[in-house]
Design goal:
The chain is an alpha/beta fold and about 625 residues long. Among the domains are: about 5-165 and about 220-275 and about 285-290, Aldolase class I (TIM Barrel, Alpha-Beta Barrel), CATH 3.20.20; about 315-400, Thrombin, subunit H; about 410-510, no CATH class. The protein contains 13 helices and 30 strands. An 8-stranded parallel β-barrel has the order 1-2-3-4-5-6-7-11, surrounded by 6 helices. A 6-stranded antiparallel sheet has the order 9-8-28-29-30-27, with no helix packed on it. A 6-stranded antiparallel barrel has the order 15-16-19-18-17-20. Helix 1 (about 15-25) runs parallel beside helix 2 (about 45-60) and helix 4 packs parallel to helix 5 (about 145-155). The relative contact order is 0.13.
Length: about 625
């Protein structure tokens, strides 16, 4: 069996971010177009995506466009036209949620099933493969055995989130935002109700937890699990973050590039690169220095106790030390081995648990001690002696990432040879693609110093400058030493090199092939369920036609249609507050399975627990029963 490619997939808020992700080692990037992406505020012009694709394909890397919202009937045709535009712009695949799109005349572009399609079972994965999907974004909540069972049931490439923010609900199964604000998460407008503070009370009104961010999860970090995930069947390793800043994209892409390269080096018989080129960095990746809410590997190794970021949804940063002395305009901080910088940002927890922060104008180390004098732009009034401070903005690290911080080069073997008519230069890249250039020189005057001439020739041939190439080997093929090599003008060598590089660029562009669209199975597969509630997110007639064609008899309208009344499940999640507060009847003998309530101001949610599935539902009513309709 040939080695299986491992793809590092990075987020792109815009084309420039995507290009930096490629230069920092991504094998693919995902980006939103001008509409219909699940991050409505991260849209991009098709022309910009075309520019990104041109750079990505230079390294055999791919570009995926997110067209992954649910659509109204009136939006289907604009979405279809957009997918054609993206295809013509060079996009390699579209990420979709709405099955109505599969009923339309789409271009021959590869289809990827969005995480919003909520893929948790082998049956659903196999169905999606049979209807024409090539890559499946698995639910974040899966364990290694669950991933392995899905991999055994399908031939699709499996994509899994390895870093970044975690939606507490199963993706595609959260309706709190739309119920309370009219902003649908399934249409890219989530209001992030999960990051708000809540009070948890039992059936008798006793408070279990007061004013904590009880639905806010720590950030995903699978750094220690990459090999196990690859062995379970994951082929695409996805970094979350289409709304994150550029330093996050650079830092996290480089971090996971280095980790995956270690796996590729250690297991060449099992895994291989998904694109070409090798990266060099001007910085050492430090995941802890960019935005995170703490780290968890979630359910990959089963249920764990400490997955929530209950204290705050903000980025607190890395613990530095404690305040040892307070003044009117500054303080002394004992910071251990840490090196502080002017412009650093610090955070702390106040007396009631809320977070505060400050930006440091200047810092001074006190001799050779771990003590620093710190002078903030504004002195917070609630600082206390012995208060612990955290650094959430490292100015020196951020300055490194503001500059050019990576180069990605494709290795070349060069052969410079003498021909009967003159000379030729053949370039062969690391993928085996070749290109050649030559020039005629009838008069061949022997050089006076053959060894020096050979050194100079190698030097000029190797000047690849700002191209995307680097020299791996140069071989000179002359009659020398039997005959002295001829004199070669520097201008002729440089012109020959430039022509050969241009020819290789053209050859590589001609050799690049976008992944093909997968043909649906010959026999129409049956959907794993015969009925779909509002949880099926069916919001247009084409989607209904799709599910009817695949054997679904009962199809309810999507929640966004505004037809749900009374108390319904606004969120389904594997996160369990009973478990978090030691109230799980499966774990604690005698624990009372009282009904629990989440409270935020005037909003109250009833919690319902399915212990067999080990899931929690957050029940509530729709405050704004206003259906989404296109004009």
């Amino acid at each position: 069996m040939p080695p299986r490619p491992l793809e590092l997939l990075a987020p792109a808020k815009n084309a420039d971010f995507g290009i930096e992700a490629i230069l920092h080692g991504a094998d693919a990037v995902y980006i939103g177009g001008p509409a219909f992406g699940a991050r409505a505020s991260a849209g991009n012009r098709v022309a910009d995506i075309h520019r990104l694709a041109q750079v990505a394909h230079r390294y055999d890397a791919r570009v995926f466009a997110a067209v992954n919202t649910i659509l109204t009937d009136a939006e289907l045709e604009p979405a279809r036209q957009l997918i054609w535009q993206l295809y013509e712009a060079g996009v390699d695949a579209v990420i979709v949620q709405d099955m109505g799109l599969l009923e339309l005349d789409l271009p021959p572009i590869q289809l990827h099933a969005s995480t919003q399609t909520d893929i948790r079972t082998p049956e659903k994965a196999r169905f999606l493969e049979d209807v024409g999907f090539s890559q499946l974004v698995l639910a974040r909540e899966l364990s290694l055995p669950q991933i392995r069972r899905i991999a055994d049931a399908t031939h699709c490439a499996l994509e899994f989130f390895i870093h970044g923010a975690i939606c507490v609900a199963y993706s595609g199964q959260c309706y709190i935002s739309h119920a309370h604000t009219g902003r649908s998460a399934n249409r890219g407008e989530c209001s992030q109700a999960c990051r708000l503070p809540y009070t948890l009370a039992d059936g008798e009104g006793h408070v279990i937890a007061m004013n904590q961010h009880l639905l806010s999860m720590k950030d995903n970090d699978q750094s220690a699990n990459l090999l196990q995930l690859a062995e379970a069947g994951v082929g695409a390793f996805k970094i979350e973050g289409r709304l994150k800043d550029l330093s996050y994209v650079k830092n996290m892409t480089a971090h996971y590039r280095l980790l995956l390269d270690e796996i590729l080096t250690a297991h060449p018989e099992r895994f291989c690169r998904a694109s070409s080129g090798h990266c060099q960095y001007t910085f050492t990746p430090r995941p802890e220095k960019t935005f995170h809410r703490g780290s968890t590997d979630y359910f990959v190794h089963g249920r764990q106790t400490d997955i929530g970021a209950f204290a705050t949804p903000a980025f607190v940063g890395v613990a530095l030390g404690h305040i040892r002395r307070l003044g009117t305009n500054g303080f002394e901080l004992e910071a251990g081995d840490a090196e502080l910088h002017n412009g650093d940002g610090l955070a702390y927890f106040g007396a009631t648990g809320e977070t505060g922060g400050m930006r440091l104008n200047t810092v001074e180390r006190m001799g050779d001690t771990p003590l620093w004098r710190c002078f903030p732009q504004e002195m917070p009034a609630d600082l206390k002696l012995d208060m612990r401070l955290y650094r959430n903005h490292d100015q020196a690290f951020e300055r490194l990432l503001e500059k050019t911080s990576a180069e990605r080069r494709i290795s070349l073997d060069l052969v410079f040879a003498e021909t009967p008519q003159g000379f030729s230069l053949t370039l062969t890249d690391e993928m085996g693609i070749r290109a050649e250039a030559g020039f005629t020189q009838k008069e061949k005057t022997p050089t006076r110093d053959p060894e020096r001439a050979a050194v100079a020739l190698r030097e000029h041939l190797g000047k690849l400058g700002t191209t995307c190439y680097q020299v791996r080997d140069i071989r000179l093929s002359f009659a020398y030493p039997a005959e002295p090599p001829p004199f070669l003008p520097v201008s002729a060598i440089n012109a020959l090199r430039r022509e050969a590089v241009a020819n290789l660029d053209a050859a590589r562009a001609a050799a690049y092939r976008r992944p093909p669209r997968k043909a649906p199975a010959a026999n129409v597969p049956a959907y794993p369920e015969s009925a779909l509630s509002y949880l099926g997110n069916v919001h247009n007639q084409k989607a209904r036609d799709f599910y009817h064609r695949h054997g679904v008899a009962v199809i309810e309208a999507a929640f966004e249609a505004g037809k749900e009344t009374g108390e319904v499940a606004l969120m389904t999640t594997r996160h369990c507050l009973r478990y978090s507060f030691n109230l799980c009847p499966k774990e604690v003998k005698g624990a009372r399975p009282d009904p629990l309530t989440l409270i935020n101001g005037k909003e109250k949610f009833t919690l319902v627990f399915d212990c067999k599935k080990c899931e929690m539902q957050v029940l509530g009513k729709q405050k704004r029963p206003v259906p989404i309709r296109a004009e």
